[in-house]
Amino acid sequence: MAVNINTVYTTVLFILNKEQRGYITPNEFNSLAVQVQDEIFSAYFPDGNQLNRFNQNNQQNDTEFFNMFKDTAYKLYPFEKEAAFTFDTPSQAFYYNGVGEIYKLGEIISTYTGNPTYDSITQLTSKSDFSTITRSKLTTPTSQYPICHTTNAVITTTPATAARLIIKVSPVPNSLLVNCIFKPTDPQWRFSIGGVGQYVYNQEQSQDFELDISEQTNLITNILKYCGIIINDPTIIQTAAAEAQEVNINEKS
Q1: For residues 180 and 102, is the Cβ–Cβ distance under 8 A?
Q2: Final residue of a domain: which of 182, 215, 231?
Q3: Torsion angle of alpha carbons 196, 9, 207, 209, nearest 10°?
Q4: Domain-terminating residue out of 159, 182, 205
Q5: Angle of helix 5-18 relative to helix 26-56, nearest 10 degrees?
Q6: Tens of pLDDT, residues 54-110
Q7: Same structural domain, 32 and 10
């Protein structure tokens, strides 16, 4: 369940107004909302790595609803999708031409049609290792054991030409399917101007936070922290930072 952006914005404004600390405009709030969502999302990966060490050391609480590693993985499930990549003949590589921005690549499956057909797990290597391996007769990749590397290239597509992440595979498969983590969509609080010049929330044009509902408190406290910088009030920064740190400690303890 996503976090309603209007709930977060009105809560932030309420706290600022209650303490008579000032006001932030919708445009300022939207910029902070994008920054904070990206920070929380990016933290899932080092946090998950840290929590996984508890699993390896048998220190993780495995009681239902209290396994923190599973909780962190659960928060990433909505962003995990299989993406079909499109082949670009000029670059002899595959690129993603769908909706959304890829954040991390997971398992890469190369499909070679024929008799027999192979759906092969493809090893991701560095560009230098890719060159070395493909040039050697002893280590040349096969349709059962393909390898790949990633780079950037300018791809001409309809309607625009843009630099994209591409995947070069050896040998070149008939199709490529990649398990990816996608970046959350930028949140936006959209509005119209009311009769007395006030901002009126436009729900249809707004974009909610895509993070799990459990992140609502983190979103509010971290946005407040940045509000203190905009308003130039160190008290807000210190209070919000302390609250955010306490939430973080409680989650990991």
Answers
A1: yes
A2: 182
A3: 180
A4: 182
A5: 110
A6: 555 555 556 665 666 677 788 999 999 999 999 999 889 999 988 899 999 999 999
A7: yes
